């Protein structure tokens, strides 16, 4: 009788171990917790670069709109005045779009330009005439080049469909403004930041003589 009970206990224990092993093999692994820097939204994951893009586009408008207005007052060149008008009109519309996207995605936005932008505003605010024209074209063109690189990088890799649409729209605006600023004939291209050097190409695979493989 004792032998029979001991056998049943051993058999039950074997079944229990087998069941536990089977459950562990069948159950999917636990998913890693989402980083606090990432938000899972219906439009897809929203990461730090996505939020930074919205903030940078917002700040671009915070200094380019007043400088565009200033260009219409201080510029000596009629073309610079016209470019300033386009910057005001386009960035006013883009700022509205930026705030709408930020509200939907729950991203806080800055209300003041960056320290660099404030410095550029002070520089232009102290000038007028041809000196203003030259610095306006150069500073704004360089700033748009930096923003273009940021927007293009996010557009290429974002996981969020809303940010894809926003970055595509922003790229079109930034490219338009770069072209307008260049149309003034005042941009010194040799003073713009140089493009990043291309990454080193991986070595070509060695050529294997098929006769040696026989």
Automatic annotation (TrEMBL):
Region (Disordered): 194-214
Domain DUF4142 residues, every copy: 49-179
InterPro entries documented for this protein: DUF4142, Ferritin-like
Pfam families to which the protein is assigned, alphabetical: DUF4142 (PF13628)
Full protein name: DUF4142 domain-containing protein
Organism: Nonomuraea indica
